[in-house]
Amino acid sequence: MAAAAHNAVFMLFLISGVRLSVAAHTTVPPHFTVNLDLPEEERWNGVIAKYGDYIKQAAKEIINQVPVEAMPLVEMIAADIDKYLPSPYAGEMRGIAKSANMNLGDVVIVNIIYDVTAFCTSIGAQDTNGTIWHARNLDYRYRFTDMLRNVTISVDFQRRGQTVYSSVTYAAYIGILTGQKPHKFTVTVDERDRGAWWMNALMAILYSKAKPMSFLVRDVLESSENFDDAVDTLSNTLTDASEYFIVAGTKPGEGAIITKGRLAPLDIWKLNLTAGRWFEVETNYDHWVEPPAHDDRRHPAINAMEKLGQNQIDKMHLFNDVMSLHPVLNNRTVYTVVMSAANPDFIQSWVQHPDP
Ligand SMILES: *[C@@H]1O[C@H](CO)[C@@H](O)[C@H](O)[C@H]1NC(C)=O
Ligand SMILES: *[C@@H]1O[C@H](CO)[C@@H](O)[C@H](O)[C@H]1NC(C)=O
Ligand SMILES: *[C@@H]1O[C@H](CO)[C@@H](O)[C@H](O)[C@H]1NC(C)=O
Ligand SMILES: *[C@@H]1O[C@H](CO)[C@@H](O)[C@H](O)[C@H]1NC(C)=O
């Protein structure tokens, strides 16, 4: 983990032909260890001790976004949580509710809403040495982006003192949207647009035993032993919503963007050096269709990667020259992470505070 608390990032971009310099600053997310050898109910106590007040405030704002008609479904899940959200999730959420003094239903809401609101950019790339890289910006679509910056943390999940997997997440959010299994693979999730997602997601959990996708990602980090296994499990498990999963491994060619329907993969798009595809970018649109003009982060990211070039890919170049460029970095960006599963110590995360 980097020790410096603040770094300055300066972006240059053009608006109406005027060259503007826009300042942003970054902070290092606080680091926590979650000990998987502890009972589920106790694992997050250290995080809650530090973030209890923020979590309650965040939950209040999040719950305001939830349609009234969804509330009875949330209550049904909370009332029989072990049936709908299996171990370790039910136990960990019970523990969080207890130590933060919150309703279990509110903890469930917090854990499901983030699931469906990750507006992001993820990039998988292979450098000229065959090293695989994975970079992501997590953008949040609602107004309380600032609050989420305050609860962003990095977590090592350990067993017998060894890190089994790591994540960058929000305090009280126990699923994983950005994760690394050392020496095996890295995974990120980007939201795929869907209609009445709240009701659909809750109905899928209640009636089809579908998995919240951030829980699936954590299961895969826990259980999958290699890139192919991770891609296969992420592709073929029933989930509560449609998503993009971006997976990067440790060997040449091990990079894939999965366009996941709820039941099955719609498309699995892999790096292919023979075809000249040394990197792939996913934002929030199917890769085979053009992104809408009002939200095109894909082409700026592609242009930045091409300008950088395959022989210059490394952590700080990805951070400075790709992930920190507008509009890949924008006022909804909460954090940036760069990782490389073969070099697990390279992982670095920055909470982004673009100046208004
Ligand atoms: C975030 O934290 C800062 C400093 O800790 C605080 O001043 C600010 O009000 C917080 N913002 C939100 C939205 O909670
Ligand atoms: C990679 O691209 C080449 C050239 O387009 C193609 O022939 C080959 O089948 C592709 N490989 C895979 C694994 O899709
Ligand atoms: C490739 O490896 C060489 C030697 O270890 C190193 O100097 C170079 O920076 C690496 N290139 C990339 C793109 O990582
Ligand atoms: C973010 O920027 C957009 C314009 O790019 C602006 O419309 C919006 O109000 C800004 N949001 C915040 C939270 O500053």
Describe the protein's architecture and organization.
There is one protein chain. This protein is of the alpha+beta class. The chain has 2 domains: 33-114, no CATH class; 117-354, Penicillin V Acylase, Chain A (4-Layer Sandwich). It contains 11 helices and 15 strands. It has helices spanning 45-63, 71-79, 81-84, 89-100, 104-113, 145-150, 197-208, 213-223, 227-236, 298-308, 315-323; strands spanning 6-15, 18-27, 31-35, 118-126, 132-140, 152-159, 162-170, 178-181, 185-191, 243-248, 255-260, 265-270, 279-282, 333-339, 348-354. Strand 8 (178-181) and strand 9 (185-191) form a beta hairpin. Helix 1 crosses helix 4 and helix 2 (71-79) packs parallel to helix 7 (197-208). It is globular and about 55 Å long. The two termini are 28 Å apart. Residues 1-22 have low confidence and may be disordered. Residues 146-147, 150 line the site of one 2-acetamido-2-deoxy-beta-D-glucopyranose.
Q: Features of this protein?
A:
356 residues, 2 domains, 11 helices, seven-stranded antiparallel β-sheet, Penicillin V Acylase, Chain A, binds 2-acetamido-2-deoxy-beta-D-glucopyranose, single chain, alpha+beta
